Amino acid sequence: MYILTTSNLKKYYGQGETQVKALDGVSLSIEEGSFTSVVGTSGSGKSTLLHMLGGLDRPTKGKVTVDGKDIFSLKDDELTIFRRRKIGFVFQSYNLVPVLNVYENIVLPVELDGREPDKDYVNDVISLLGLESKLYSLPSQLSGGQQQRVAIARALAAKPAIVLADEPTGNLDSKTSQDVLGLMKVTADRFGQTIVMITHNEEIAQMADRVIRIEDGLVKGGGDDVENQ
Amino acid sequence: MWKISNKKAVRRLSDRSLKANRTRNLIAACAVILTTILFTTLFTVGIGLMQSIEEQTLRQSGGRAHGTIKNITQEEYEKLKSTGLSKDMDANILCAYDVDNPQFLKRHVELWYRPLDKLDWYFTELKGGHLPQDADEIMMDTQSLSLLGITPKEGARITLHINLGYDQPYVERTFVLAGWFESDPVMNVGFGLVSEAYLEKYQQELAKAREDERSSVGKIQADVMFDDSRDIQKKLDQMVEKAGYSCDEKSPDFISTNANWAYLAESMQQTDFASAAGAAAILLIIILAGYLIIYNIFQISVIRDIQFYGLLKTVGTTGKQIKKIIRRQALWLSLWGIPPGLLGGFLLGCALLPVIFDISAYGKDIAVVSLDPVIFIASALFSLFTVWISTRKPARTAARVSPVEAAKYSGISGKRKEKKSAGGAKLYRMALSNLGRNKKQTVIVLLSMALSVVLVNTVFMISGSFDTDKYLERFVDTDYLIGHAEYFNSEYTGNDTEYALSQSMIEAVQQQPGFEEGGRLLGCAGGLNVEKSSYQVPAYIRQTDGEIYAGDSVFPVSKNLYGNYFCMVYGLDDLILSRLDVWKGEDNLEQMKEKLNTGKYIIASVGTDDNGQVKENTAMHQVGDKVTIRDKENQVVGTYEILSLVKEKFNSQTSRIGWDFSYYTTAKQFGAIASEDLLMTYAFNVEDEKEAAMDQFLSDYTEQVEPMMSYESKAEALKNFSDMTDMFVTVGLALSLTVGLIGTLNFINSILTGIITRKREFAMLRSIGMTKRQLKSMLLLEGVYYAVFTILLSLAVTVLLSFTALKGISGLMWFITFRFNLWSMAVVIPVLLLLGLLVPLAAERFQRKQSVIEQLREE
């Protein structure tokens, strides 16, 4: 059962001579409950791919289906709502809302959706990530690793279909990176969560169940078996 | 599916990020306060003016009641009251038609009984003492008391010589003063109010007076209040009919009623187009000023926080929710800003209202500050509206942020591809480019500052264009004009000598030192008329159904019972004759005199508009026409040929009553038409250095020697003129200053946020070797550029306006001769340059102080 598929996904920037083909026909299928990492050098198009997968940006061509829904058939606000229900994000720069405390940050996507957070579940996530003592702290008072753990908790809070992580350990030292990644894996296993993670760090990438390589906007390895052969 | 309750999260986000934006909030709240102050001041003054004038009209009409039912009996009163058609009703009884003490020669005083609980209907408010209770107690207005030489004191004895009506004997009666009240300055009528006990005691006398049908004494005058002031006459008629009486004058059951004219639509709704347009223009300027700043504040803050909004988007905030977040913040800022603005504006309005009234015909004493809730509701709504339209665009900008783009957004749209300059990185170039980074923001700051500069300049340009000569020309012809007080009230008709100027006053004036020259104007209407059959109607004069219409008048020229047209004839001494403004025909003074004195010629006048231009369709004759004038017995006075046509000088050469047919001849020839005693006015000139002495003399003379005489002087007109100019400048400057404050605030906000958001950039510049001094210089240069561009922009707009809109205004106001001047710029330029230097300096200092907090915020 694929929770996420793309077909012939293209994203071009600019026109004519200066045109950049950030993605040039990517087709992927991600299995539910799997932990996939996408690796590539800087400029390979991996961030663009993640933006497309998460519906943050619209492709020039191609389709992305999440949980059976063609996400780009949605209008902007519908897409936003779909996103906050089905997709969790973890960014390199944490992107926590500075004016909200840890708990408020975590439940923000759920509340924006007008729902009451599932308290037991959220508490479970919080304790798993070791954030119990920090619930009322503001992001500015936390270390990088702590902030990223909050971001992970936030990504999970809405019980999304898929979690997309964009260089989640990019701003962390290697020890903390290991910890954070370990936590991600644990929570994914625990809650049966699908995770797609982007990284340029081979060592980190190897911790995933599956590694997809991207170069010059094309899948160069680890892609769908069907399409690679 | 989308109908979800997510208010809590939106609210929390909105409120928290509001708290994090202290500097912006402070500036935005100030902007809202200033905008609200402007609105409230405008409404306070506007509504105050309207209500004061309304109140004034009611005072002039004598009471607040909607209507009066006249000369009825107690029985009729009860019946009318029992119809239930009125909201309230009172029974007043006139006790004496006139109080005839010699001290009241110039004042009409009446004796009334009024129900004591309805005194406020008649603007009567006990100022001292108590209300009359006993039969001999009386309450009187202060001016009448002072004419009687009585100091207001309880228990003072007053003897009044009262007139009970036609053919009734005068009665001398002594009263005891119970209380007193302020005289109404708008009417020269005094009142004595007596008690119910008086009615009892003198009921026989009143009953006798009541018998005379012609008189109102002893009869009830019932004042009526309805629920509202619509269709008053109709309601009165209904009341009369329901009570079983008639509104038909011929019926024996006729009851006469009268609606209070002050409530009639025409007198109450004198909203002329010009004032309405002026108010609308000011409203627009305020909205514009408010928009320019509030928009800029929010736009800058949205751009600064664009990453924040992008982030919110990624975690699932919809565009709608982001709009709500910003709207909610704007609403909060309005809640902080509007109440103090309402208070400030109200106080400012209260201060300005008397200034405006001071120069109006009403005088500042009547300025009534209104506490009408409409002022506050309308101001608050307009402020909210301004905030709403100002935050629309910023909210949309934030809502449209693409989560990916937000990360790169710096407020610069990347259209510019290259910068072709090889001059190197000079400070002044950098500063200039910095201004160009966000052109829209820069332009808005410039506009908002220029708005006030243009306003200031416009105020001074218009006030500088007020033309003293044009103004004086209209109101005065010579240094002084003396006449009977009623002449100046436009009551002189010359039917008899009742309102004629006294010869003794002319003689007294001629004996004053410094007297140079003078001339009489004799004037007579007195039934004189133009023989219809002799009158050749010019083609441009409208005729319908045997009536003729002068100019654009809707009323036909009035006729006497022989069907001839009434006219006015003036006789002039040489001085006045020489000051006639000839439009067509003979204009040589000697020739004119000679021909007029033959008794075969006469001069006719034509009307002019506000700008002194002849209204040709008011010329009842052309030069060479023949006209026969008859007197009221229909005897021919003479037949004349029109010698010339002169432009009417309404205030100096007419009786101040418009006559369609009016003629001028010499004083000598006037004697052949009417009595030479019909002395209307005397105009004279005085040596300049003796003018003050003459003013004093005339003021004393008209008070002490001949109180029925009055005068007008050039000095007085000049004072009215400068009062008007002062008022215009005061009000104009108050408006410009507030708008200027808004502009400055906008400037401060831009500079301040410019410095805060570029902190990292400054650090980078420092790291590559820019000294602190250089950094400061760059900031100062930016400030100076703002100032310079503001000056250039204001100059351009002012010049443009001067030759378009302002010229148009000068056409609207007759006493304006448009003069272009920019001297107020000379004052504004240094102020702007100083601002341009001081604001960046202060902002930089402020920022350094604030850096810890701001940095925390930025994290």
Written overview of the protein:
The complex is a heterodimer of chains A (229) and B (859). By secondary structure, chain A is an alpha/beta fold. Helix content of chain A is 35%, strand content 27%. Chain A has eight helices and ten strands. In chain A, the strands form two sheets. Chain A has a six-stranded mixed sheet with strand order 6-7-8-3-9-10, with helices on both faces. A four-stranded antiparallel sheet of chain A has the order 2-1-4-5, covered by helices on one side. Chain A is globular and about 55 Å long. By secondary structure, chain B is α+β, with helices and mostly antiparallel strands. In chain B, strands 12, 13, 14, 17, 18, 19, 20, 21, 22, 23, 24 and 25 form a twelve-stranded mixed sheet that branches. In chain B, strands 1, 2, 3, 4, 5, 6, 7, 8, 9, 10 and 11 form an eleven-stranded mixed sheet that branches. Chain B has a two-stranded antiparallel ribbon with strand order 15-16. The radius of gyration of chain B is 36 Å and the shape is globular. Chains A and B meet through helix 2 and helix 3 of A and helix 1, helix 10 and helix 11 of B.
